[in-house]
UniProtKB/TrEMBL annotation:
Lineage of the organism: Bacteria, Bacillati, Actinomycetota, Actinomycetes, Micrococcales
Residue ranges occupied by any Beta-mannosidase-like galactose-binding domain in the UniProt entry: 48-126
Family to which the UniProt record says this protein belongs: Belongs to the glycosyl hydrolase 2 family.
Residue ranges of every copy of the Glycoside hydrolase family 2 immunoglobulin-like beta-sandwich domain listed in the record: 163-264
UniProt keyword annotations, A-Z: Glycosidase, Hydrolase
Name of the protein in its database record: Beta-galactosidase
Domain Glycoside hydrolase family 2 catalytic, chain residue ranges per copy: 274-432
Organism the protein comes from: Microbacterium hydrocarbonoxydans
Superkingdom to which the source organism belongs: Bacteria
A biological-process GO annotation: carbohydrate metabolic process
Domain DUF4982: start-end pairs: 633-690
Length: 816
């Protein structure tokens, strides 16, 4: 069926009580273009829930009028919603047309039976959220909507599936599995023509077979086409092919569809680990949530591609979509850029985590939601495994064994080409048995207090103590037994012991503490059966506020896992909300063996009289800067990350000292340096010889605003990084400014903000405070004309102007 974007012409408003409207109380609709996050624009409540970033609960109404052509008789018309959060209901011309409780599933609505051709039709969508999530979800129609129109005999949505088998250097068999559907009241016979093309557009294989379709039925065509000398897809070489399918009757094409695909061979076993195309691969993984930082939950293809690109540039080669199915746009970006994907189904099964969460719908809807995820993922070579859940309490029970087995077998039935895992948290799996375990610990002389003290001393140690207990071994055996790969959350202490207990078990660290990456990566590299590590998290996200914040405690104060208002972000990402790399990112790059130069991080001064507490998701309270105006003469704590045995630190050439680094010192050396402006240089010392260097030079007074422009691939979004810099262009990290962003021309300001995890500003603009000297403006084009973006910061420093040229076309509907 012909697929066109259906994102324009929508209106939305908060859900209205129809009885109140009869009395004259009503809120008007506002024009919006999808995708749209209805929640990010709401006022936050300081007395609300930190888990959802202090945003309120709510319900929303969307509507769109649509006039289809008058000659649509016999045509198939389908609406595709990539994501509506949550409990979506769809009405067409007042008639109930469909629903979807799960906020992350792609779903379709058969619209033709409700539409009146040649007349104006009304499409209405309602959604609601609140009390249903442990993180920021956004709300409303936050992903793309598509209109599919086709003839009575047609290729339905997801009607083309491509897979490769018998892959050899001189050739591969590509199976193109095509569904042909019919709403005709008689048998129909069509020719299914398939052609395969390479990235340059050259045809490399083609085939045609006739297919007869029953009355109001479906038929399946499977063509096995031989493709000579295939170029294989991998993260290092993400080569894509394209399959084009046509339905032909009497030499006339009546319908068509296409799909990108990759050819790659997956193998996994406990001796070799994970192999892609015969080569051993260790997954350098990042967990991510679905929001796009200052854009909220709105899923723009350009923003998804930017996230994937920045994560790969930071050293990651794999992404886990936590804890819900990944967007189509991000999958496409992973295909193009070369990133492996673990796509995840649910954060809960039947056991509730929040009062109104998906567990209330799981029993009725899980199969359809699994079908939706697999249908979405099947043609994407980046997807190498499915996760059937995250930290599911039932995994420690026989009932959980039954549910897990049903989920795993459903996935295998739908897609036998990928592996199945489950992100199991051993402590949560035996939560109901914790009293029994505490009693066992008491028998050993520790009592209940021992567990509490251990937890306060370090959650990582506590989780591992629980996770390696015989109780967890016994209780999780069935849940792990249904999987191809055992996914373990915060269970690194099981990696080696399970090699003896379960010699056929392959393990992946589905979620790990970022502060333990040196320890965990050594386990990954030293053990073939451990195939990778997924840190929590790669990119900072909204909600679970302050999970990774540094605590500076006054006397008598105790740490908290949740930050107070105005905290908005978790602050545990290697990259912050706008994609800037934090010190932990450079440390991880060194651990992965991808960086030889040292890196310098300086602890923020000003809290020396307080006790520092860091949880397991917390990096040091540091930034990469040697600009600390106002702290001249103060002793600053400096961290230098390096894989070299030693590092030397010097200020303007004067050596401050040499300290041990490398693996034996957790790849970190520490110095105390009285601050004065200058150039701070770290030098790696390898086998007694000076090697790689890295420097920061202090910035002078703020002189102007500098901008750096990133155009999105689809030409829908433009990202403008804004920095407060001195006369030489150095970022003045200690001179934040309130900036004002104005957009003139064929565009609107989609968002403006910074990486600050606790901002006072909203992201609506036009004003925002920089953070460590940097902010980001996101401009959304509304037409092909030229655009002028003006950024100012009062009268003290020079403003900046960005000119965006005219487009030959507007690429907002370019994704296919």
């Amino acid at each position: 069926m012909k697929r066109t974007a259906f994102n324009d012409g929508w209106q939305f408003r908060p859900k209205q009580n129809p009885f109140a409207e009869l009395g004259g109380l009503s809120t008007p609709y506002t024009d919006v273009t999808l995708p749209h996050d209805a929640l990010i624009h709401e006022d936050r409540d300081p007395d609300g829930e930190g888990a959802v970033a202090y945003f309120p609960a709510g319900a929303y109404q969307y509507r769109k009028t649509f006039t289809p052509p008058a000659d649509l008789a016999g045509q198939r018309i389908v609406l595709e919603f990539e994501g509506v959060y949550r409990d979506a209901t769809v009405h067409i011309n007042g008639a109930f047309a469909g629903q979807r409780p799960y906020g992350y599933s792609r779903f379709t609505i058969d619209a033709d039976r409700f539409l009146r051709p040649g007349e104006e039709n009304l499409i209405e969508v309602e959604s609601r959220h609140g009390g249903d999530s442990r993180w920021y979800t956004g709300a409303g129609i936050y992903r793309d909507v598509w209109l599919h129109v086709g003839p009575a005999v047609h290729l339905p949505v997801d009607g083309v599936r491509v897979s490769a088998t018998d892959i050899e250097p001189d050739g591969a068999v590509v199976e193109v599995d095509v569904i042909v559907a019919s709403t005709s009241n008689r048998h129909e016979t069509v020719d299914v023509a398939v052609s395969l093309t390479d990235a340059a557009g050259a045809t490399v294989a083609r085939g045609t077979v006739p297919v007869t379709v029953d009355v109001n039925g479906q038929s399946r065509s499977r063509q096995r086409l031989y493709l000579p000398t295939p170029q294989l897809w991998s993260a290092e070489s993400p080569t894509l092919y394209f399959a084009a399918v046509e339905l032909i009757v009497d030499a006339t094409r009546i319908d068509d569809a296409s799909a990108a695909f990759g050819i790659r061979r997956l193998q996994v076993d406990p001796v070799h680990g994970l192999r892609v195309n015969g080569e051993v691969v260790k997954l350098r993984g990042a967990c991510v949530h679905h929001d796009n930082g200052i854009l909220g939950a709105a899923t723009f293809a350009d923003a998804e591609e930017r996230r994937v690109r920045l994560l790969k540039e930071a050293g990651f080669n794999a992404i886990r979509s936590s804890h819900n199915p990944m967007s189509v746009a991000m999958l496409e970006a992973c295909d193009r850029l070369g990133v492996y994907v673990m796509d995840e189904t649910f954060d809960m099964w039947t056991s509730t985590k929040m009062p109104h969460d998906y567990s209330l719908h799981f029993a009725e809807w899980w199969e359809r939601d699994v079908e939706s995820m697999v249908a979405k993922d099947f043609n994407h070579p980046s997807v190498i495994m499915y996760s059937i859940g995250n930290e599911i309490p039932e995994t420690g029970s026989p009932a959980g064994g039954l549910t897990g087995r049903a989920l795993a077998e459903k996935v295998r039935e739908l897609d036998p080409t990928r592996y199945v895992t489950n992100a199991v948290n051993g402590m949560l799996a035996v939560m109901d048995d914790m009293k029994k375990l505490a009693a066992q610990r008491g028998d050993e002389g520790g009592g209940d207090a021992a567990g509490i003290n251990t937890l306060m001393a370090g959650p990582a140690e506590f989780m591992n103590q629980i996770g390696t207990s015989p109780l967890v071994t016994e209780k999780t055996a069935e849940s792990f037994g249904v999987l191809d790969i055992a996914g373990m959350n915060y269970l690194d202490a099981r990696y080696v012991m399970d090699k003896e207990l379960f010699p056929h078990r392959v393990i992946v660290g589905t979620e790990t503490f970022p502060t333990r990456i040196d320890h965990n990566w050594a386990l990954v590299t030293e053990n073939a059966h451990v195939i990778g590590d997924f840190t929590w998290t790669g990119f900072d996200y909204l909600g679970e506020v302050g999970l990774g914040r540094a605590h500076h405690l006054a006397e008598g104060e105790t740490p908290s896992l949740s930050g107070p208002y105005p905290w908005i972000a978790a602050w545990c990402g290697d990259l912050d909300l706008i994609g800037s790399r934090r010190p932990a990112s450079f440390y991880r790059e060194i651990i992965f063996g991808l960086r030889t130069s040292p890196y310098i991080a300086v602890i923020r001064p000003g809290n020396e009289d307080r006790t520092f507490y860091a949880g397991p998701w917390t990096w040091s309270d540091s930034i990469g800067s040697w600009t600390w105006a106002g702290h001249e003469g103060a002793p600053l704590a400096v961290e230098v990350y390096s894989d070299a045995e030693e590092v030397e630190l010097a200020l303007d050439g004067d050596v401050i000292g040499t300290a041990a680094a490398g693996a034996e010192n957790r790849f970190k050396a520490e110095f105390t340096v009285p601050y004065r402006p200058g150039t701070l240089t770290a030098t790696a010392i390898r086998r007694g010889e000076r090697a790689e260097t890295f420097s920061f030079t202090s910035a002078g007074d703020a002189a102007r605003l500098a901008t750096r422009v990133e155009d999105g691939t689809s030409e829908d979004l433009v990202f403008i990084e804004i920095a407060v810099v001195d006369a030489d262009g150095r970022v003045t990290t200690s001179a934040d400014r309130l900036i004002d962003v104005r957009v003139d021309g064929d565009a609107v300001l989609a968002a403006v903000g910074s990486g600050n995890p606790a901002p006072m500003d909203s992201y609506d603009g036009p004003e925002a405070q920089t953070f460590d000297g940097v902010a980001l403006a996101v401009v959304r084009r509304t037409g092909p004309g030229a655009v002028t973006v003006t950024v100012s910061a009062g009268d003290v420093i020079a403003p900046a102007t960005v000119l965006l040229e005219e487009l030959d076309h507007l690429g907002v509907a370019a994704r296919t």
